Amino acid sequence: MWELGVAVVACLAAAFFAVRLAAARRAYARAVEERGWLLERERETAARTAVDAERARIARELHDVVSHNVSVMVVQAGAARRVLDTSATDATDALLAVESAGRDTMTELRHMLGLLAPSADGHEDPLAPQPGLDRLGSLVDRMCFAGLPVEVRISGEPRPLPSGVDLTAYRIVQEALTNALKHGDGRQAEVVVRYAEHHLRVEVLNTGPSVLSGSGMSTTSTASTADGPGRGLLGLRERVAVLGGDLDARRRLGGGFRVRAKLPLDRP
Q1: How far apart are CA 135 and CA 105, in angstroms?
Q2: What are phi and psi of 105, to 5 degrees?
Q3: Do 192 and 180 meet the contact criterion of CB atoms below 8 Å apart?
Q4: Residue 190 sits in which domain range?
Q5: CA atoms of 43 and 49, how far apart (whole Å)
Q6: Long-range contacts for 212-219 (Cβ within 8 Å, ≥24 apart)?
Q7: Is residue 191 part of a domain?
Q8: Residue 92 belongs to some domain of the structure
Q9: Which of 13, 30, 215, 239 is deepest in the core (most CB within 10 A)?
Q10: 6 is a domain residue
Q11: Among 238, 229, 182, which Cα is nearest to 67's?
């Protein structure tokens, strides 16, 4: 009888442990399945985030490339229309500026499209340089020719900059001058670039109606202010934030607008 009792207990214990083992395996299988599902969700979320970030980057680049040159083209086309019957020479100069701005737009768009979808023959150079402060002179010349006098002041010792900082500094000046051309009074703009040991400071000022008097504000400028920051300024804030810098854009009490940025030069 003793041996039979031991055998029964052993059978019951074996059955118990078999049931527990089966339950543990099922729980493990469910856990693995749930973990796989969570990992898949995380991968999908990361992929969507990457796609959204890339879309935002492309939108910023398209805005920066197109908005400036198209604004210059619109201003110059309007000038050509106004003087077409009275001064053929001035009209021709304005139309040449439209053509030049259009060619610049096409060049930058081809470069951008080449990065997104390289040509099959391999002729597109993906490493072609992006614009930087070395092209500040030509940018200022275009704005002056479009009717916005620009004064440039550079302090410190100019030196090669990290590519991201160089491009962002150029885009800040480009966007600020474009907005000054579209929304300012067209009297004067000032660009200040300061090379410090650890930072690059960029400031763009333009004249305009005083926010204290509120007089002389154009409909376009008022609408732009009421709608809040435009895509251009939002894009600049994102560019600067990626570099670990600061950007401040606001109306000046004495009139006009000020855009000021501080970009670190030694950020890893």
Answers
A1: 15
A2: -60, -45
A3: no
A4: 131-268
A5: 10
A6: 212/253, 216/185, 218/183
A7: yes
A8: no
A9: 239
A10: no
A11: 182
Give the CA distances from residue 184 to residues 144, 211, 256, in Å, rounded to whole numbers and listed in that order: 14, 13, 7
* CA–CA gap between residue 83 and residue 76 (Å, rounded): 11
DSSP letters, 149-186, are -EEEEEES------HHHHHHHHHHHHHHHHHHHHHS-S
Quote the pTM value.
0.60
215 located within any domain: yes
CA dihedral of 242, 245, 250, 256, whole degrees rounded to 10: -110
Q: What is the CATH number of the domain that holds 182?
A: 3.30.565.10
Three-class DSSP category at 141: helix
C-alpha span between 10 and 15 (Å, rounded): 9
Query: Which is it for strands 199-206 and 246-251: parallel, antiparallel or unpaired?
Result: unpaired
Q: 180 with 189: CB under 8 angstroms?
A: yes
Nearest to 186 by CA among 212, 239, 149, 236: 149
Per-residue pLDDT of the chain (268 residues; tens, 9 = 90+): 666 666 666 777 777 777 777 888 888 888 888 888 777 777 777 777 777 776 776 677 777 667 767 777 777 788 788 877 788 888 888 888 777 777 777 767 766 666 565 555 545 454 455 788 998 998 898 888 888 899 999 999 898 888 889 988 998 998 888 888 887 776 889 999 999 989 999 999 988 765 455 544 443 443 344 334 456 778 788 888 888 899 999 888 877 889 999 999 876 5
The count of structural domains within the chain is 1
Cα dist from 187 to 3, 59, 225, whole Å: 110, 31, 20
Residues in the chain: 268
